[in-house]
Design goal:
The active site is at residue 45. By secondary structure, the protein is α+β, with helices and mostly antiparallel strands. The protein has five helices and 18 strands. The strands form four sheets. A six-stranded antiparallel beta sheet has the order 7-6-17-14-9-10, with no helix packed on it. Strands 13-12-11-8-15-16 form a six-stranded antiparallel beta sheet, with no helix packed on it. Strands 1-2-3-4 form a four-stranded parallel beta sheet, sandwiched between helices. The two termini are 37 Å apart.
């Protein structure tokens, strides 16, 4: 990265994020994402994901700063960054290269809806009745019937989020695997999910979708009334997140596994 990179500051609508946007833009200038060397979202993890979905195709490195309620994917915001220290922080960052998941959902109406997920793709029951799902891996039936509230597939970066809350494993960055985790599985009652190679093609078939409707959500993009959902790691999309060396993403993921809180 150049000594004084061109930065595109992007902020959520919170008062703190908007104030930081004004201060940082005054100190370092403001550039459009297409013209910038680095994107700098100001907010929480939700806003980081919005930024990745909106601008990830540009291939620009992303250095987020926490000005929201949850900031696992963000760096700490420091008021002194508006006085010129941000360039020094950027020069010292460590990169983490992430690959999103591709979701292709088929709906009852016959529509095909595609989306990317940097955290996870989740299938959830839409009514009081449990979902009935069949799971195929690389075209081979692997689980004939999963009766559950839902199921999700998480990337390593997303494994500490919804996946971890559903008792799924935390995955190391660079391990080239994804987590397949059930949500309140009723049958098989003791099935805890699986860790799969990242290139595995996972296909969910919804059994009796009219009586037991299911939705699929890629990060925050929801598709209702799905009948089949295919998920695999993207073959051509990556995103590079930048982190301060004292608190990089790999260290945060390790800390999550050794905390008692």
């Amino acid at each position: 990265m150049t000594a004084n990179p061109r930065i595109a500051f992007l902020a959520s609508q919170t008062a703190d994020a908007q104030a930081a946007l004004a201060a940082l833009s005054r100190a370092h200038g403001q550039h459009q994402p297409e013209d910038a060397d680095v994107l700098c979202p100001l907010g929480g993890d939700g806003f980081m994901l919005q930024t990745l979905h909106r601008h990830g195709a540009l291939g620009k490195p992303v250095y987020g700063m926490k000005l929201g309620s949850v900031g696992f994917l963000m760096n700490h915001y420091r008021a002194e960054d508006a006085d010129g220290s941000l360039f020094e922080r950027l020069a010292a960052t460590e990169p983490a290269v992430l690959k999103p998941l591709e979701m292709l959902a088929q709906t009852e109406s016959g529509a095909s809806v595609g989306s990317l997920a940097y955290n996870e793709v989740s299938l959830l029951r839409q009514t009081r009745q449990a979902a009935h799902l069949r799971i195929d891996l690389n075209g081979q039936p692997r689980l004939e019937e999963l009766v559950c509230d839902g199921v999700l597939v998480a990337t390593p970066a997303g494994s500490t989020a919804y996946n971890f809350s559903a008792h799924g494993p935390i995955l190391p960055l660079g391990a080239n695997v994804v987590a397949l985790t059930p949500i309140a599985a009723f049958r098989p009652r003791r099935w805890r999910g699986a860790v799969l190679k990242a290139e595995t093609e996972i296909r969910f078939h919804v059994v009796d979708p009219y009586k037991r409707p299911v939705s699929a959500t890629a990060d925050s993009h929801e598709v209702r009334d799905v009948v089949e959902v295919m998920i695999r790691e993207s073959r051509d999309r990556t995103v590079t997140l930048l982190f301060d060396p004292e608190h990089n993403l790999e260290e945060r993921m390790l800390a999550e596994q050794f905390t008692s809180g």
